[in-house]
Write a structure and sequence with these properties.
about 220 residues; alpha+beta; 2 domains; six-stranded mixed β-sheet; two-stranded antiparallel sheet; 8 helices; 8 strands; elongated
Amino acid sequence: MQILLRADSGFCRDDLMSWCEANQVQYVFGLARNQRLRKSIDAEMAQARALHEQTQQAVRVFTEFVYETHDSWSRARRVVAKAEHLSKGENPRFVVTSLDAAYLPAQPLYEQLYCGRGEMENRIKEQFSLFSDRTSTAYLRSNQLRLYLSSIAYLLLEAFRRLGLNGTAMATAQCQTIRLKLLKMGALVRVTVRKVWVSFSSGYPDQVLFARVFQQLHC
């Protein structure tokens, strides 16, 4: 089985990279910017700046090179650089990897492989809106129970998003947005002998979407 580690620059340490290399574990780590790294992509940054001035759009130019620190790394390693120019200025980024260029070129390595780590973190952040950070009791078991409940809530909302919101404008909405727009609504509940009546406000702005989601879940 091939193991690949993706992590931000806080994990870019020679001990960890050397261990990965010795144990056939591939890695892609963020690399903190410094003056040497920035100077090494002067040409690419100039190219990105010129293209931005022509198009007034964000421009990315990718390159790669072999890089070694003065004393903190035990060996030279492959570094992929993103020379990006935005309306607010330049935005260079760097990653260091054990993957060979023949296996994955610079641009897909950064945009698809490394940036996928950020998307995974977004799913973890969604848990915070479902109170997964409320682990403040004095006992491990009660904190674990809270995490269980938060995880179950997330799975239910993910199923709701996948099944009920499929094909709608909220198909990729985050949990907090779903809760606020579709679940956290005021209603009048009346219980009679044979039925439970739930009356929603006629001024509810997303009633068309709500009706569609209800129909998709009902089917």
